[in-house]
Design goal:
- By secondary structure, the protein is an alpha+beta fold.
- It folds into two domains: about 50 residues, no CATH class; about 50 residues, SH3 type barrels (Roll).
- It is about 20% helix and about 25% strand.
- The chain has three helices and four strands.
- The protein has a two-stranded antiparallel sheet with strand order 1-2.
- Strand 1 and strand 2 form a beta hairpin.
- The protein is globular and about 40 Å long.
- The termini are far apart.
Length: about 100
């Protein structure tokens, strides 16, 4: 566990952050799970439903099979045979930054 205030060099208390704008405010009183993604010098916290675990995987491109899908980097077959889709974090970050610049 780490303190996100130290990690992101901010004095904003995560408990007081306005999560309503991101539509993830908890209704059951639990704290949302955050995955921190680094992209160049930028660090972004992605709020996820839950963190299942950590695995080493080999990502296979899907573009030759199903074409380009924005926000999707590829896929992987997990050890138990399940298929996992891999998000393209840089694409999602760019999309979020573009949306942030648009007037509401």
């Amino acid at each position: 566990m780490l303190d996100l205030r130290d990690f992101f060099n901010t004095s904003v208390n995560p408990a007081r952050a306005d999560l309503r704008r991101s539509r993830v405010a908890s209704t059951n009183g639990t704290r949302p799970a955050v995955v921190v993604v680094s992209w160049g010098k930028l660090r972004v916290g992605l709020i996820v439903d839950k963190i299942i675990g950590k695995q080493d995987i080999v990502v296979k491109s899907l573009s030759s099979i199903i074409g380009e899908i924005p926000g999707l980097s590829g896929g992987a077959i997990l050890g138990d045979g399940q298929i996992a889709l891999i998000i393209d974090a840089s694409n999602l970050i760019n999309a979020a930054l573009r949306l942030k610049k648009q007037p509401i």
